[in-house]
Design brief:
four-stranded mixed sheet, alpha+beta, 10 helices, about 475 residues, single chain, 19 strands
Length: about 475
């Protein structure tokens, strides 16, 4: 019996040793090659549009007098692109609107979060700045229809939710081109004595949109930014999912409800990519860069009489052609890191004094009204309205990272010098700024431009932040971008 037990143990021991040896081999292999035990990283993306065309008979802002268009030249949309690196998910949204107040964007972002869990701060929503959209923010003498504001809010949220539904494995790439022929600084230094008094009785040192070809022109009061930054997303089989471009041009202009050149670009880039009638649909997007003092008029020469809508088509076609060239030459990547940072700062409001407010009321009382006609009357009304603003307002700032591309987001009509400064100081290989993002706080000139005066600095609901706002905003955004760069 004793001998039998010993023989059995002798047989079992080598087997046990072999098992232990196998386990040790597996342990060592798993320690030396962790990637074999981990799932591969996967980048995903989705895009969608939502129709936000206003119904006829409601207000359209973008001028100092209210307008009520009676025709729709082309439909307006909210366009959304969602990116996901497996850990972080971002949504980039452009809205065919002149400006969208923060309350609408905040509510839309909350709706998306409630239904999908997408973090609120991970959504960048911006207005394109078409001047022929339904009024969403009350500026000058245009008042928003509450029913349209609610409709707009829900449709913006829908665009993001549908884009999330459309997500699929994807590749992403980006690049920078240039379209210099359509950007001109619209603020000009003029010969002495040729600039009329401003609405407050003072004399500015520059004039916005002077007469083209005027002999009184001296020189532009600032630079331009011809860059066209392109983010292109494709499915694994090469099918285009979306293309988002950013260009620093204010708007072109149209007479009826229209998405302006932003909408024409979206259609044209789809055509150029051969992406029409896909399922899910391809989405072209164009966000507004730093164009607060930039338009498409070459003031050095007389303006030709262009047929209606031809100029916006010409601009959009050139921008789309360059976007196609850039997207055809960029290197697409299977995976890139995504990240976002968001903060709020309080900025002072340039409120009028009691004497300025009382003078404004006197001017309004003498107006033939109810609509204010002269610049003095219009800005008197704005002065009274601004006098009711708080002394400080919160301003939301955001920075995003897509690989080595940085995006800054500012809720205003940002002067081009500010965008150029952010590009110069950013830690990323390429950076662009999206204006009119996540809200609307009016024009954002530099302190130097405030000293020059001109339309963009005149105190109104379209321009009310403190004079030194832009340096504070740039400082905060560079800090956010640097935080992202360390990830």
């Amino acid at each position: 019996m004793h001998k039998t037990l010993n023989r059995s143990a002798a047989v079992r021991l080598p087997l046990l040793a072999r098992i232990l040896l196998c386990l040790a081999t597996v342990f060592v292999f798993s320690r030396s090659a962790p990637s074999a035990a981990q799932p591969a990283r996967q980048f995903r993306a989705g895009a969608a549009t939502s129709n936000i065309t206003p119904w006829l008979g409601i207000s359209s802002n973008g001028g100092m007098q209210d307008r009520v268009p009676q025709h729709v030249h082309d439909e307006l949309h909210a366009r959304a692109l969602v990116l996901d690196d497996g850990q972080t998910r971002l949504a980039l949204v452009t809205v065919d609107s002149c400006m969208v107040p923060r309350q609408i964007f905040d509510t839309a972002r909350k709706l998306v979060h409630q239904h999908t869990g997408l973090p609120i701060e991970n959504m960048l929503m911006s207005a394109t700045h078409t001047h022929t959209a339904g009024t969403a923010a009350p500026v000058f003498q245009s008042e928003a229809d509450p029913e349209y504001q609610l409709f707009l809010t829900r449709k913006i949220a829908d665009a993001v939710r549908i884009a999330l539904y459309n997500m699929e494995p994807a590749r992403v790439g980006w690049g920078v081109g240039q379209v210099p022929q359509h950007v001109f600084n619209r603020r000009w230094k003029m010969k002495p004595g040729t600039i009329p008094p401003n609405p407050f009785g003072g004399i500015d040192q520059v004039k916005m949109n002077p007469a083209a070809g005027s002999p009184d022109l001296v020189e532009p009061a600032g630079p331009t930014d011809p860059d066209l930054t392109v983010i292109s997303v494709r499915a694994l089989d090469g099918r285009p999912i979306a293309l988002l471009a950013n260009y620093s041009l204010h708007y072109v202009g149209a007479g009826h409800f229209s998405a302006d050149y932003f909408g024409v670009f979206a259609d044209r880039i789809q055509q150029l990519l051969g992406a029409d009638r896909q399922d899910p649909p391809f989405v072209g997007m164009l966000s507004n860069g730093t164009s607060g003092n930039i338009n498409n008029i070459d003031f050095r020469q007389q303006r030709p009489a262009d047929p209606p809508f031809s100029k916006m088509k010409a601009v959009a076609n050139d921008v789309a052609a360059e976007a196609l060239r850039v997207s055809s030459n960029i290197g697409y990547q299977d995976w890139v890191p995504l990240a976002v940072r968001q903060t709020e700062i309080d900025l002072n409001v340039r409120r009028p004094t009691a004497e300025e407010r009382d003078r404004a009321r006197q001017i309004m009382a003498k107006a033939q009204g109810p609509a204010m006609r002269t610049l003095e009357e219009i800005y008197a009304r704005e002065t009274v309205l601004i006098s009711e603003y708080p002394s400080k307002v919160p301003v939301i700032l955001q920075a995003l990272r897509i690989g080595d591309l940085g995006i800054a987001a500012i809720p205003g009509e940002v002067f081009v010098e500010i965008g150029l400064e952010i590009k110069k100081k950013s830690p990323f290989a390429a950076t662009f700024t999206t204006s009119l993002a996540n809200g609307y706080n009016g024009y954002l000139p530099t302190p130097e431009h405030h000293r020059l005066g001109g339309y963009e600095t005149w105190r109104a609901r379209s321009s009310y932040l403190e004079i030194d706002s832009s340096p504070r905003i740039v400082e905060q955004l560079i800090e956010l971008l640097q935080q992202l760069g360390k990830n």
